[in-house]
Amino acid sequence: LHFIYKKAMKLNQTRLLISEPTLNQGGQFALHQVQAQTGQISRTELNKFQNYKYFTEQQALNILKPLLAEQKLTLTFSDEKDRYFETRKKDGEKEWVVEYLKQAILTNCEKPDEQLTFNFWAIGSNSDPAKAKGCAETYAIKYFLTKFFLIPTTDELDPDITKPHEHANRLKNGQQETAEQIQKRHQERDQKRENELKAKYGAD
């Protein structure tokens, strides 16, 4: 699995690289179960300075925590030594760039020797070195979580996928919905919206 994420903004830049993981059969199955049950995540937060919407690390964790617990998995992170570089922007302003290698370890709680290990780079930049590290950490982790666990993002404020009910496609009793149940739920939702529009505008 190789994934490259690049994001450039006025004062920070982030890149995420995920290397080939070390896998075992048991861990692969548990990971597949998590990936198969994640719902969507919505960009509900607004950066007013640069006028774009984004999602937070907490939103991703709200989706993943119950799924990881269900599969009896823990996810931990570690960092290699940071490397800082001083650069200059086009306007002459000093800027700090930090890069470091992060490692994510997915562990089977019942069999701690069963682990999946992933390495990825975190890179961020800012005029403040501490903020550069914060940018790198925030973007690297939240995009690792969503890309690796296959959580799609959306801008639509659909009540089925926005907080606090971001753990989508699951019934109130915690059971995973079947494809037929999901289809029926969406049909009922679409029909409800259609009826509301007809009632409001008097359209046939």
Automatic annotation (TrEMBL):
<protein>
    <submittedName>
        <fullName>17949_t:CDS:1</fullName>
    </submittedName>
</protein>
<dbReference type="Pfam" id="PF04404">
    <property type="entry name" value="ERF"/>
</dbReference>
<feature type="region of interest" description="Disordered">
    <location>
        <begin position="170"/>
        <end position="204"/>
    </location>
</feature>
<feature type="compositionally biased region" description="Basic and acidic residues">
    <location>
        <begin position="182"/>
        <end position="204"/>
    </location>
</feature>
<feature type="compositionally biased region" description="Polar residues">
    <location>
        <begin position="172"/>
        <end position="181"/>
    </location>
</feature>
<dbReference type="InterPro" id="IPR007499">
    <property type="entry name" value="ERF_bacteria_virus"/>
</dbReference>
